[in-house]
Design goal:
Belongs to the EamA transporter family. It is found in: Cell membrane. With 283 residues, the protein is an all-alpha fold. The protein has one domain (2-275). The protein has twelve helices and no strands. It has helices spanning 2-6, 13-36, 40-45, 50-73, 77-97, 105-124, 130-148, 153-177, 194-220, 223-229, 232-244, 251-277. It is globular, with a radius of gyration of 20 Å.
Length: 283
Amino acid sequence: MPLYWHLLKAVPSLQIIAHRIVWSALLVAGWLLWKYGRGWLRQTLAIPRAGWMLALSGTLIAFNWGLYIWAVNAGHVVETSLGYFINPLLNVVLGVAVLHERLNRVQWTAVAIASGGVLWLTANYGSFPWIALALAASFGSYGLIRKLVAVPPVRGLGVESLYLVLPALALLLWGESHGDGGFVAHGAVPAWGWGAAALLVFGGVLTALPLIGFADAVRRIPFSLVGLLQYIAPTLQLLCGVLVLGEAFDRDRAIGFAFIWVALAIYAVDGLLRNRAAPALPG
């Protein structure tokens, strides 16, 4: 994802986020209309608490998208990866504090080591890592809400998208009319023309599919396990930032990330051993 959005660096970040919302909304709403008919929205909003909770989760994910795209194109990919390293820790804390999930001693040890790495990075990063902390808080809160609301994942994403689509359309129309759009006016990317437009449209697909998978996963597995799996994406983001985009990664950052990777290894090995020790289900 950071490499994809980097291709659209010349397009203003707000325009990119608006395109993500509009095209993912069209994709998801179209599929829901074909699959369930026109009543899908009414049926979804009839679910208790769905209306206001999906409005809140939609606002959180829009904020997360916007900050992430801005940070990538402003040269802060390594700090965004830090945010998504912090996010699994936050998921573990939320799983214990809000959902009353339990961790064993080894898992608590892993959380403590990873927390030490985060504190080290915060103290030695060179500046307060507000991008990382804001990304972690917004996406962690989004995941918790989607865990709590009993809405099928695609329908939930469809409702979230519909809440956001009108403001996004207004922003796009304003940008195109003032020559700042990347779709029709090509004011931001004159050398690319319709190539940039195609990337913006396909960004809706890249937005919808991972979120559908994520929303489905958080309802099927313990929230603390979601935290473990979410270490994969920030590792890839870190590699993209350092090896491809040439961002700095000094000794202090390496020490902090090493703490987090050790914690991940402890958490993963403990889970593997416990699964092997568990008695097999009959039949």
